[in-house]
Amino acid sequence: MPRTDYVARLVGLSLLPGVGRGRSVELDGGGAVAVAEEAQGPVFVAVRPGTVSLYLSRPDGSPRNVWPATLVAATPHGSTVRCDLDGEVPLTADVTATAFAELGLQPGARVWASVKASEVAVYPR
Length: 125
Prior knowledge:
By secondary structure, this protein is mainly beta. The chain is built from two helices and eight strands; from the N terminus they run H-E-E-E-E-E-E-H-E-E. 10% of the residues lie in helices and 56% in strands.
């Protein structure tokens, strides 16, 4: 697993440093991420863009990780659009071009991002 944000971005991951406290990681930059496995001490949280879902309003359901965000950049990436998100938990999301259009997304849009805890990788730093 990558140890720097630069390498993480090259392989398409959002890499977030934090401190594990059981089934939650408190991020160094603020915010928290729910994780499926126990984590203790200094860790990295890695999130693949394909596991991030975007919504126009706060979603209901099973994902334990739901955060408000602002779409800061959108780049076509094959059949998907890579969306760079800024907020309490900065992430990158890949959504289909169809979904991107149906949601009416554009830079500056306010969205809700969600990731299932089981989709978050955690490893020691």
